[in-house]
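Handout, section B. The chain below has 178 residues.
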Amino acid sequence: MTAKECIVGRRSIRKFTDQPVSHELLSDIVATASYAPSWKHSQITRYIAVEGETKEKLARCTSAFPDNGKIMAQAPMVVAVTVIKGRSGFERDGSFTTKRGDSWQMFDAGVASEAFCLAAYEQGLGTVIMGIFDQEEASALLEIPQERELIALIPIGYPAETPTAPRRKAVEELLNFK
């Protein structure tokens, strides 16, 4: 599969079979995703694989958007994406490198999450990146250390659906030359 085929073919999957995701396969996906670029090669993204009873509890941390809880509940696994705070966008003395402050950690987490999803797709798995959940409740449940921040939740599993691609904006709308 070419990079273009992977990017164009990947879809957000919201329905999964009950086939479990092996720990070995997930480790391989994370190893591939570790090649995602990051601020000054800080590599701040960390993953937590959530299964079983803890996954069921995590699915209840979505009262603001209950459909996300339903998706997580029927996925065989949910991967929590976290970052180490205070590194991306910072100098060694703790000052910000740019006026964007600590926004770079969200950028790094986004790049790493997409690399994770593409690596999963290449292996035949489906994913969807979720940002609507009770961050405090989920962080407490997953025992996220103080020096880290929970950024996103990614249900992962073997797809039970093949959604069609949503309409894309025309290149002329997306690209300008100066």
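Note. The chain has a mean pLDDT of 94. Compare this with the example in section A.
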